[in-house]
Amino acid sequence: MKKQNMFDILLPLDSEQLNYLKKLESTCSNIQCAWLSGYFWKVANQLSNSPDLQIKQDNLEQTITIISASQTGNAKLLSERLYKYFKKHNKHVSLINALDYKFKKIRNEKILILIISTQGEGEPPEEAFSLYKFIMSKKAPKLSDLHYSIFGLGDTSYNFFCQAGKDFDKRLQELGAKSLLDRYDADIEYENDYIKWSKELLVSINNYTTEKNITVPSFKKEDYSVIPQSHYNKANPATAIILMNQKITGRNSNKDVHHIEIDISNLNINYKPGDALGVWYKNDTNLINKILELLSIPISDKITINNNIVTIFDALKNHFELTNNTKNLVKKYANFTKNTFLNNIISNDIYFHNYIIETPLVKMLYDYPCKMSAEQLINLLRPLTPRLYSISSSQDETNEEIHITVGVVKKIISGYLHLGGASGYLSQSLKVDDKIKIFIESNNHFRLPIEKDIPIIMIGSGTGIAPFRAFMQQRDNDGSKGKNWIFFGNPHFTEDFLYQIEWQQYIKKGLLNKMSLAWSQDQKHKVYIQDKIRENGKEVWSWIQDGAQIYVCGNASKMAKDVEKALLDVISKNAGMNLEDADEFLNNLRLNQRYKRDVY
Ligand SMILES: Cc1cc2nc3c(=O)[nH]c(=O)nc-3n(C[C@H](O)[C@H](O)[C@H](O)COP(=O)(O)OP(=O)(O)OC[C@H]3O[C@@H](n4cnc5c(N)ncnc54)[C@H](O)[C@@H]3O)c2cc1C
Ligand SMILES: Cc1cc2nc3c(=O)[nH]c(=O)nc-3n(C[C@H](O)[C@H](O)[C@H](O)COP(=O)(O)O)c2cc1C
């Protein structure tokens, strides 16, 4: 066996970097070597104050790395809490977003903690996509020195519950990593699971580090968290005021989309194009009254929430989900009522799945009413969670305002109109001067390029256009020279052309270079944005070659997948690659932050 010399062992470079260095060295004269040494010294000094290097330095000596992989902020909040918890217990820990994690470094990790939600249909959140692809690929290294733990966040009402966490867990095992603690798969009410897991994890880590005699370095400098903290957040929302609430689809449209402007003056809120707005909504009064009536509960009955006594009406107004039916809820209700039909439904997976989709809570109660107490009702329900909306304004343009573009979720079931909880509240209940509870959910993986001359291609259907309005406002304010191309799709040109006048003005100004529109129902055959991408394939490819960044926003289950297929076809056809190579090419674009998606 080749003996490793001391220099190699102490070297802060991995073998790949060392090879590069040796190759470079072999091509350099003495003068060039001397110049390079001075050059790297300068680079090192320039970097020493930058957060980036701080992370790298921490990595060299760190013991625990927490990776946060989140889409709507829950995993991010829990990661921040875990980070603080470990610090309080004197652990040497670093916290990083999955997107910022240099995943090839995973081979150097000793203890890795992953807090990850599941999105789409059993997929990892967008910011963890590249890490996921790398770990699942043949390129993933053996990880026999790694100990890890995973906290999965999900929702039991989805078919692939906590699938992303499960996938990572399985793959890490295959790569030889050892689990410190069994994975937790937590539902929407994750608080108790989180507390239990974090405590058990601390014990496991303590046992492991004592057993292995791993020294935990004491803290020399202020730890650096790559996740910025903000004043207002989900747990501490700001109260803002509605300035405008206007329907922006035509009278004959099947879609009801609202443009909402919110006043944030004096709140000291900052946001960037790409961020989303979190909204704490209130349930509809008629819906609450109907539910209480069907269960024979007086609206003034009292219950206790977080040590406060409130009426059941107030509790349902502000604290519980009433518009989403779930498997758990139906199971609990079937058990409570002993209803034969419901009990039959839950025993058949396919019927059960369809029943949940087709039957809102109030319809189930209408079909099978019963008598229960306020307390019993509360035990059936899930806590209300805020909804996110892509911000459709740039703060440089609108100053103390936030704009959002809300598509109202409407369903007619057995002749009754059912509205989505938050989209119903935003579109129907909120009037000018009303108060609204909000917070900013920052979205660092969906940012405009820093270099202003880089071309961008924006692809979105329906309300997926929202962040691109913010992008264009920003590019306009920045005087960006980079070319801009929008692909937009909706059913009808006359009814559903969201923000039409603004796009026309940008085109006139020369800021918007190209707009490709797909009106799916304006002709016999359906035409979607993916068709427009294929139709313009040669030009799309030419923009990609010119360094364009591609942004996709909107529906995850259908649109984003079809758009990705179209992009793969364009790359494959124009670059003469097979689909597998095209996939690799697109993934490289993703890795280089040139293919960014914000899909829901
Ligand atoms: C990062 C992010 C950005 C988003 N940006 C926007 C945006 O800019 N504009 C926007 O309008 N929405 C956006 N959304 C979606 C938004 O957060 C809500 O999910 C949406 O408004 C529905 O919530 P709701 O409370 O009205 O409906 P819920 O009360 O949650 O749902 C009521 C019923 O409708 C079903 N349902 C929910 N959504 C749909 C749907 N789209 N189609 C059919 N059935 C549905 C539910 O399963 C349920 O049965 C975004 C979501 C994310 C995660
Ligand atoms: C668009 C969307 C799709 C989702 N898909 C799934 C899913 O397939 N499986 C699952 O278990 N949970 C799913 N969830 C639920 C989330 O995982 C859950 O809300 C989680 O707490 C979100 O954590 P995050 O805020 O860190 O992203 C989905 C949520 C959204 C908004």
From TrEMBL:
Alpha(8)-beta(8). The alpha component is a flavoprotein, the beta component is a hemoprotein. Residues 64-202 form the Flavodoxin-like domain. It catalyses: hydrogen sulfide + 3 NADP(+) + 3 H2O = sulfite + 3 NADPH + 4 H(+). It comes from Buchnera aphidicola. GO terms for cellular component: cytosol. FMN binds at residues 70-75, 117-120, 153-162. This is Sulfite reductase [NADPH] flavoprotein alpha-component. Keywords: Amino-acid biosynthesis, Cysteine biosynthesis, Electron transport, FAD, Flavoprotein, FMN, NADP, Oxidoreductase, Transport. InterPro entries: CysJ, CysJ-like_FAD-binding, CysJ_Proteobact, FAD-bd_FR_type, Flavdoxin-like, Flavodoxin/NO_synth, Flavoprot_Pyr_Nucl_cyt_Rdtase, Flavoprotein-like_sf. Its EC number is 1.8.1.2. NCBIfam families: cysJ, PRK10953.1. SUPFAM superfamilies: Ferredoxin reductase-like, C-terminal NADP-linked domain (SSF52343), Flavoproteins (SSF52218), Riboflavin synthase domain-like (SSF63380). Component of the sulfite reductase complex that catalyzes the 6-electron reduction of sulfite to sulfide. This is one of several activities required for the biosynthesis of L-cysteine from sulfate. The flavoprotein component catalyzes the electron flow from NADPH -> FAD -> FMN to the hemoprotein component. GO terms for biological process: cysteine biosynthetic process; hydrogen sulfide biosynthetic process; sulfate assimilation. FAD binds at residues 323, 357, 387-390, 405-407, 420-423, 600.
